[in-house]
Amino acid sequence: MDLFNEAETALCPANEPGGEIPNGAAGHYLLGLIYRYTDRKKSAIHHFRLALSIDPLLWAAYEELCILGAAEEATVVFGEAAALCIQKQYLHQGLASPNSHMFSEDYNLVSSQKFGSEDISPRQFKHTQGNNIRDIPVNHHGTAVLSGAASQSQNGGPSNVSFYNTPSPMASQLSGVAPPPLCRNVQPNGSNPNTVNTDGSPRSVVNSTIQAPRRKFVDEGKLRKISGRLFSDSGPRRSTRLAGDSGANTNANTMAVAGNGTNSSSKYLGSSKLSSIALRTVTARKGQTWANENIEEGIRNEVVDDSPANLASTTSSSFPSGDGRPLDKDGATVLVGGVAVSCSKVISGASEVLGLLRTLGEGYRFSCLYRCQDALDTYLRLPHRHYNTSWVLSQVGRAHFELVDYIEAERAFSLARRVSPYSLEGMDIYSTVLYHLKEDMKLSYLAQELISTDRLASQSWCAMGNCYSLQKDHETALKNFQRAVQLNSRFAYAHTLCGHEYVSLEDFENGIKSYQNALRIDSRHYNAWYGLGMIFLRQEKFDFSEHHFRMAFQINPRSSVIMSYLGTALHALKKSGDAIKIMDRAILADRKNPLPMYQKANILMSLEKFDDALEVLEELKEYAPCESSVYALMGKIYKRHSMHEKAMLHFGIALDLKPSATDVAAIKAAIEKLHVPDELEDNL
Description:
By secondary structure, the protein is mainly alpha-helical. Strand 3 and strand 4 form a beta hairpin. About 34% of the residues have low confidence.
């Protein structure tokens, strides 16, 4: 809705200028977003840093700092201070609670070290603890909880266990029929939820009190008939199979029942959810936040840590022991997401998560600073199971794209789509990669797939626009890019693509407006600065062109393309010495890019340094043997040297390479004037 003033007033009331921001880290993060969107960069950076200081696991805040170019090194943000902060907020807080508060007389099974694996509806837990990012609801349907805590909630008493409730679907999303129960063994209302089998292991049953808050769209009789038909012959649900694989020691009669059919191993790398520290699983990243990928009916949790030690750690921390042994007989235990976990495991888990965030954060920071090779080297330090996730592969593809290595970028993005075919992360860049590679079939297929996946995503329409732009249908491409802007007005890259299409249509006025809109959203979007520089270069406004190319160069000082055009603008301003220096830097930045070498040869030719120019062009022939303009320029230099035979040879090679119609006319004109002296040619 973009009601930023109202949102800011809600977080910072005008009559309380020094008041505390609600919800701790989450409040500071939201306030930082508001300041960023209203172009108050310093205030945004301040609140993002405050959010990280309160909750070091708030990845989204660090991500925003990277985008703003103000992030500290990840080794500092996710270092020892972050580990101490986590212990102070969670571990010490759990230890400070008296045992009488943690284990009341209702926890009769806990005192004998026997735990039940019972799923609780998130609607039963409306209250969370602390002004922190922990108050944000996260997916927590399948976590095993203490049976005593469940019975305490049924009796109406306040629960001392901190839970994170996920909002259930609204009535309009349920198609008018309540979902059937997930377990056939439903006990009557008066049954004891903490029944124990003959072998002494606890058994989980569906609690009628917990299921009661569900809205009833059909009467109870019809619901029983529906559930009987659906589950009469069906096999075990996927969540049950996963639970059985993870907890091999649990009793065979134990069934993990989840509100939405999700598995208990879902984890948020960027949140403060304590069970994410204890449970060692990996979730792919979607959009701009770390989140589970909802694919079809369930949660895609296929990338897991399958080593024996880690599997044992997961089993011991997230699932109770079937034989009634305590989780940690000697060490102190704390409640983490409703599960009793030893302090040592919490500390080691936090250390592992912070270690992962250090690598991911440093790689992302390098990417936002356009130190792309450093970013690639950092991502290579990740374990195999983390590297082969959709988000990391998308970041690898983006880094290769910035390095103008489109073949490697295409390979990385295709792998990312194979891992997570429904994720739209980086698909706008992927479509641009295919555009540069002129892979029209792949680009068309990608655009159709993205549109079928999500018609309301800007990335889908950017891919469709690139597809039409590759076919030289710039008007239709522009309409698709405008649709992307309409769906997300804060998508800077869509504004930039609109500007590119306006330039292709030679509508420079609207092109300038589109680039300026992109810069209002993101002042560090160097593509828009580059686009403005190109427009002013074509309009021969070389002062403006130099300014905008310099702005782009300050943001991305390693781009060979930006340096090449900056050198061209400097040469047009009669600053040939500076132009040659910047061209040399561009050549060193990317040896495979022929543009700076060609522009350097042009500058040397204008300075009448023909031998140096020929030397550069001879080297350029090795990198671009099929570039007609290289041979045409060599023909002009040989003509200046009065070496007419060599000049004619190179002009002929240039024509054989099928240049554009404009270049063909220029080459033929040069051949006709081959024997005309240079002095007379200049007068003509």
